[in-house]
Specification:
13 helices; about 375 residues; about 85% helix; mainly alpha; globular; about 0% strand
Length: about 375
């Protein structure tokens, strides 16, 4: 079998591309601790670019459009921190204070019922757990202060943390300003024979990422607000905390409602001692699911993401294991793009002779017969 010069050259080019990709991957893995602010800035710039483009279409220059988007993002983040952080801190403190009473109620009420139903005596083990928690629960309130004190004692760590935090708005601004220029340069760097396929896949990835970042995050936020407002109106303690955590857990389908209704049900029953209040908790989460299925999902997501719940869990765990916080931050967007590439490879394989070699071999004799005739 004779290998032509062109095939040798193509094989050499593939090896060069693979080597460059390996070096780039190694480089990013090596500098992973400093990448978090840049990735956060990329996400913010990606979210803000469509708004800046629409403002440009209305006559604003790119600079003024970016300034408007930057001010809106800053106000949104600032208001969120000012409004939610104090309330969440207050409810976490109340939860810590209520922990001893909750443990006593479980020991005196839940465990006897469990023993009568199953015959299992867990009182001894739970009593040891209760004593351990009660001996240390007061220390949990000073965890934040201890962490801050430790960070402040390490001057370089504090400076690095503040520098990373200050980098986010600066990098976000410049990325927003030159986003379209950077995308155009990357496109021009692509090999000409790969450019049409790469651009098509990039557009599909953009649709998936837009559905996830601008869709899934809004769905999670809306569900968290619905749950928090509903539980607060019912008078359930820690309603804001439970609602927002349930909204965040909704990144995995049905996990948010399962976790939320379980925790809120236990808290509500312990607080009111009435089974009827559980109906109210169920109505709150049922209303949230109704809004999600009839309004939020069709309008914001549709069927563009296509990530199985198991794939979501695996992506988050794998990203955290491999790259820490940065990996968790990028896990689902990367998984969504990988799904687009896998679908392309699947379609390519199904249309190849490797998948249907027998059918292709049948075609060749028939084509030869037609030529001879």
């Amino acid at each position: 079998m004779v290998v032509s010069f062109g095939e040798k050259r193509m094989s050499k080019q593939w090896w060069i591309v693979a080597a460059v990709a390996a070096v780039v991957l190694w480089f990013f893995v090596s500098i992973e601790p400093v990448l978090a602010p840049f990735f956060v800035s990329m996400v913010l710039a990606y979210l803000g670019d469509p708004i800046a483009d629409r403002l440009e279409e209305r006559g604003l220059s790119r600079q003024w459009a970016v300034c408007v988007v930057f001010v809106l993002l800053t106000l949104l983040v600032g208001l969120t921190l000012l409004l939610l952080v104090p309330l969440l801190g207050q409810q976490i403190g109340q939860l810590v204070e209520a922990l001893p009473a909750v443990l006593s109620w479980i020991q005196s009420t839940v465990l006897p019922e469990l023993q009568s139903l199953t015959g299992l005596d867990l009182s001894t083990d739970f009593d040891a757990l209760r004593k351990a928690v009660l001996e240390n629960w007061k220390e949990t309130g000073t965890v934040a202060a201890s962490v801050l004190a430790q960070v402040s004692r390490s001057g370089m760590a504090l400076v690095g943390w503040l520098a990373n935090l200050a980098l986010i708005p600066v990098v976000t601004f410049y990325l927003l300003l030159d986003w379209d220029v950077l995308v155009g340069k990357v496109r021009r760097l692509l090999p000409r024979q790969w450019e049409p396929t790469a651009v098509r896949l990039a557009k599909e990835c953009d649709e998936v990422l837009a559905a996830f970042l601008r869709g899934q995050l809004i769905v999670m936020l809306c569900l968290g607000v619905i749950y928090a407002i509903g539980l607060t109106l019912l008078g359930v303690r820690f309603g804001l905390l439970i609602g927002l955590l349930s909204g965040l857990a909704s990144i995995v389908p049905y996990l948010g409602v399962i976790v939320g209704i379980s925790v809120a049900g236990v808290v509500a029953f312990f607080q009111f001692g009435d089974w009827l209040v559980l109906l109210g908790v169920g109505l709150v989460f049922g209303f949230g699911q109704l809004v999600e299925s009839t309004l939020l999902q069709p309008k914001l997501l549709g069927d563009k993401i296509g990530l199985h719940p198991v794939a979501v869990i695996f992506a988050v765990l794998a990203g955290g294991q491999l790259f820490g916080f940065t990996g968790v931050l990028l896990a689902l967007p990367v998984a969504a793009m990988v799904m687009v590439i896998l679908r392309y490879l699947h379609d390519t394989y199904k249309n190849s002779s490797l998948y249907d070699a027998e059918h292709e071999s049948d075609k060749e004799p028939s084509a030869a017969n037609e030529e001879s005739s």
